[in-house]
Amino acid sequence: MIKKTFVFLLFPISLYANDCVKYKQIPQVNVSKSEYKKTVIQSEKPLDKYHGNVLATLVEDYDLSVDIIASEYGYCVVLKSVDGTIGYSDFSVQIDNSHVKGSCEYNAILNHEDKHINAYLSVVDDMRADIKNSVFNAANSVMPIFISTRDDVDNAIENMNIKMRAHPELVLMKQKLKAAEEIRNKRIDQNEDNFELKKCY
């Protein structure tokens, strides 16, 4: 008896969810770069042979807008648009504390690390079309969600956000970003071989 009641409760909810599919729409997608700030600090611990380092913070935020459509037994939450922000929000430049601020060595390292920052930024610029396409495909894969009360709207939106972020194209896009970063940063170090710093000695 308990088993039959349990099945009876789940079955109509599944039907209501299927009814929401007809409200699926192609979402509008906008993707912008994040604003960034740069901070320069002197490291307390010795750094590598280049005496400097850049820590970059990648931002990936999505603001989802939905339509809430009343149905006979609840509501359908339908993804309408996505405003994405993807890029770097912070660059922390670390310079070995053996170099006095304003000295030739300090400035040479700072100039070198600025080239790494430009490399990070150029990756996002060059991949702009791929990034937007990946976000669109991820957003377009999100199906409407059935909820029984309007109190569940926030949970539905969070659920949509989680599904978007887990989409294979977004996962692959972030992997490509990281790979391109690594290649460009290695190229800078190989090409320069600490040339500007060597001029100070």
In short:
The protein has 201 residues and is of the alpha/beta class. The protein has helices spanning 2-20, 104-126, 128-140, 153-165, 168-192, 195-198; strands spanning 28-32, 37-43, 52-70, 75-96, 145-147.
Sequence of secondary-structure elements: HEEEEHHEHHH
Treating each run of at least 4 consecutive H or I residues as one helix, how many helices? Answer: 6
- Counted beta strands: 5
β-strand percent reads 25-35%
How many separate domains make up the residues? 1
Question: Sheet bearing the most strands, described?
Answer: 5 strands, mixed
Shape: elongated
Span of the ends, CA to CA? 87 Å
Uncertain runs with pLDDT below 50, 5 residues or more? 1-13
Rounded Rg: 25 Å
Backbone structural class: alpha/beta
How does this structure look, described?
The protein has 201 residues and is α/β, with parallel strands linked by helices. The chain has one domain (2-198). The protein has six helices and five strands, in the order αββββααβααα. It has helices at residues 2-20, 104-126, 128-140, 153-165, 168-192, 195-198, and strands at 28-32, 37-43, 52-70, 75-96, 145-147. Strands 1, 2, 3, 4 and 5 form a five-stranded mixed beta sheet that branches. The chain is elongated.
Q: Could you give the topology of this structure?
A:
Layout: H1 2-20, E1 28-32, E2 37-43, E3 52-70, E4 75-96, H2 104-126, H3 128-140, E5 145-147, H4 153-165, H5 168-192, H6 195-198
Parallel strand pairs: 1-4, 2-4
Antiparallel strand pairs: 3-4, 4-5
